[in-house]
Amino acid sequence: MTKLPLYHVDAFASRLFAGNPAAVVPLEDWLPDPVLQAIAAENNLSETAFFAARGEDFDLRWFTPKIEVDRCGHATLA
Known about the structure:
Layout: E1 7-11, E2 20-27, H1 33-43, E3 48-54, E4 57-63, E5 68-69, H2 73-77
């Protein structure tokens, strides 16, 4: 079993329990899509952002508990 870091971040907030919550999961390599979707469903937040380094840049993907979405502002900020 692989352990992944997971951060629960409240974007657009200056205090706890405010703003827009999102989960953020840094990855070393991309996991299969069904695994990413299962992680997002388990988090049960509006979005879970996954990112992986690609050279000096990063690739980002966002999942709701049900589907992958094209982009998400608050999860990107988170």
